[in-house]
Amino acid sequence: MKATRDWFGDALVDVAADHENVLVVNCDLASATKTTRFKQTFPERFFEIGIAEANAIGVAAGLAQEGYRPFIASFGHFLTGKFLEIFQSVGLNNAGVVLVGTHAGLAIGKDGPTQMGLRDLALMRSLPNVEVLQPADGVETRAMLAYAVTHDRPIYLRLCRQPQREVHDQDYQFRPGHPDVVSHGTEVAVVTMGAMVPVVLDAVELLAPTGLRPTVVNASSLPLDVPATGDLLRQYRHVLVFEDHFIRGGLIDEIGRIVLGLDRHIRFHAWGVDDYGQAGSPEELYERYELDAPGVASRIRAVTGANTPEIGGSKQ
Amino acid sequence: MTASITYLDALPPDRHPNLVDDGFELPYRLSRIAQLSNDVRAHLLKMIHLAGSGHVGSSLSCVDLVSVLKFDQMDASGKDVFVLSKGHAAPTWYAALMVAGELDPAEIGTLRRIDSRLQGHPDRTRLDLVAVSTGALGQGLSVALGRAQARRLRGADSFVYCLVGDGELQEGQMWEALMYAGARGLANVVLIVDYNRSQNDGTLEEIMPLHPLPEKLRSFHWHVQEVNGHSHLAIRDAVANARENWMQPSVIIAHTRKGYLGPGQILLNGSHSGALTPEVYEDAISYLGQVSV
Fold first, then answer.
1. In the structure, what pLDDT confidence band is assigned to residue B17 with cuts at 50, 70 and 90?
2. Is position A311 within any domain?
3. CB of B86 within 8 A of CB of B165?
4. SUPFAM superfamilies per the record (chain B) (predicted)?
5. How many CA atoms lie within 13 A of A129 on its CB side?
6. Which pTM was predicted?
7. What is the DSSP letter of B129?
8. For residue A172, is it within any domain?
9. CA distance B22 to chain A (A)
10. C-alpha closest to that of A179 among A196, A166, A192
11. Which pLDDT does position B21 carry in this prediction?
C-alpha cells in the first residue's frame, strides 16, 4: 500500500537517470511531494524556489523553453491557485512544464479546505494544450512518468496522498486519453480516476450480493478520446461518475459532455464534493461526502435500482 | 524629473565576447542606433495608428532601451534572449523586428487584428520571434530567470535581458523573482526597468510609489545602475557594465518619459494608452522625419 505521490517520488528518480533533461522545481515541499530522493540523487538538477509558487511556475516555464523537462511539485491547490501564471507563462507559452499537484481531494484531511485540491481539475481542464493525468496506482504512475518524459507538452499530474492498493497488472499499458476498463460488468458503467478507482472497485464488491455488477472505468487522463469513450459508454443504460473533486469542472463534466453527445439515451448520474470541503480525518470526510466504498455502493444501488436520474451533491 | 536623472561615468567600450566586432567606432554606432530607434518609433506609431488602439506612451518610453539591446548590445547571432515583460509595449518589439529585417513590414497593418501574428500582447504560440508570451504583468522576469538558470546549467555563454515597467514592480511575483535571482547570484540576467513614472490610473507616486527603488534592489543582492533611458550611450554603457558583473544579477533603472518621441517631444502628454488621432499621428511622423515604412 503506497500513495501515488510515493510512487511518483521513486519513479521520478528512475526516469531522470535515463533522461538528463528532467529537472525538479520545488516550493519548500520536497518532503510532502516526495522529491527529496531526486534532490539527493541529482542535486544539481533540483531548484529550490521557496514558498513562491508564482515565481516557481515562471522559472519552470523558462527552463522548459530551454529544452529541459522541469517537474514543478507542490500541493495541487497551491499550484493551480496560481492560475494566471500557469495560463500565461506555461499555457500561452506552450512551455513543456510538468505541473505536479499532490494531495488531491479530501485526503489532506485535518488541514482542511485551504490545502485541499478540490478545484484543480476544473482549472487545468480549461487550458486547451494542457493534458491532465491522474494515476490510480503505482503501475500507472510509472507508466505515466515514462510517457511524460517522452514529449515536451504541458502536463498536469494529479497525485494523491492516501496509500492504496494496486489495481493494474504489471503489463498495463498507458494510452493517453483512453478509458481503461478495470472491472467488467453489465448495464452500469462507473467512471472514476485516481485514488477513487480502488474505492469504486471495493464498492462493486459490496454490491456483489445484490446481483448488480457495474463496469468500472478508469479515466486517468484528460481530455478523453471522445469516440473511444463514447463507444464504450454507449453499451450501458446507466453511466455514473464519482470524483474526489468539486462537482463542477472536473471528470463529471468531461464524461457528461461525452454522454450527452451520444445518439442514444443513457441515464447519467454524478457525485462529488459540492462545498468548500472541511477539516476532518480522511476516513470521516470520505464517509461524510459519501465517497467511501459504502457511500459509492449505496449511490450506485439507489440510482440504478430506482431508475431515476439524479445529479447530486454531498449531504449537508 | 530631470534632476533625478543620474548618469554613470562613461565606461570603456564593451568587451562582451559574444558581440560581433564590426569594427565600427563608437560615434558611428551611436548614430546608427539613433537612426534605427527613429525608424522603430515611426513603425510602432504607424502600427498603432492602423490598429486604432494600443499603448502609445508605454511603447514609446522603451524604444531607446529596446533599440540599444536589439541593434547593438544583444548577441547578433541570436544567442541572447529578450523578454518583454511589459507586454503592452509589444508594438515596440514588433517594430524593432521589422527594422531589423526579421519581420515582414507588410504585417504592419495586422496589429491587434484577428488571426494576426501581431497580437495586442506578445503571444509566442503565434509568433516565434517573441521569446516569452507576456501581458498579464509581473511574470516575465520569472521566465527570464528560468532561461538564465538553464543556460547556466548548460554552461552556455549568453545573456537573458528582461524589460519591465516600473508599475509592474508592484506585482508580488516580481519580488519573488528578485529575491530568487539575488539569492542564487544569477549574473547572466540583465533586468531593465522602464522607469517612466506613469501607469494606467496616474503617476507612480500617486498609485504606489517604489521609492527608494535602488536601495530595495540592492538589498535583494542586485547590482544596480541608474541611467537616462533615452541616452543611447548611457544605456549602452550600463548594459555592457552589467555584463561585466559576474557576481550578481544586474538591474538598470532607466529614467524615461512616457510618449517620448525625441528631445523635448512628448506625445499625447505622456498618456498611458491615448488614442492617436490622424492629426497627432501626422505631426509625430513629420517630426520623426521622412522614414521609409
1. very low
2. no
3. yes
4. Thiamin diphosphate-binding fold (THDP-binding)
5. 18
6. 0.92
7. T
8. no
9. 29
10. A192
11. 52
| A188 domain residue, yes or no | yes
Q: What is the pLDDT of residues B81-139, one digit of tens each?
A: 999 999 999 999 999 999 999 999 999 999 999 999 999 999 999 999 999 999 999 99
Task: State residue B157's pLDDT score.
Answer: 86
Give yes or no: residues A186 and A257 share one domain.
Answer: yes
Domain range holding A46? 4-158
In this complex, which of A47, A62, A92 lies closest to B147 when CB atoms are compared?
Answer: A62
- For an interface test with B, the pick among A92, A97, A129 (most B C-beta atoms closer than 10 Å) comes out as A92
Residue B1 has pLDDT above 70, yes or no: no
Share the mean pLDDT of chain B.
90
Please list the alpha-helical segments (H only) found in chain A: 4-18, 30-33, 36-41, 53-65, 76-81, 83-85, 120-125, 138-148, 196-207, 226-233, 251-260, 282-288, 293-305
Optimal mutation site among B85, B86, B119, B149, interface A, most CBs of chain A within 10 A: B149
Residues A191 and A149 in one domain: no
Confidence tier at B22 by pLDDT (50, 70, 90): low
Q: Are residues A221 and A261 in the same domain?
A: yes
Q: Cell numbers of A35, please?
A: 522529491
Residues of chain A contacting residue B133, judged by C-beta atoms under 8 Å apart: 88-89, 92-93
Mutation target for B interface from A51, A55, A74: give the one with most B CBs within 10 A: A55
Q: Is A139 on the interface with B (CB under 8 A)?
A: no
Strands B198-199 and B202-203 turn out to be: antiparallel
Distance from CA of B159 to the nearest CA of A (A): 13
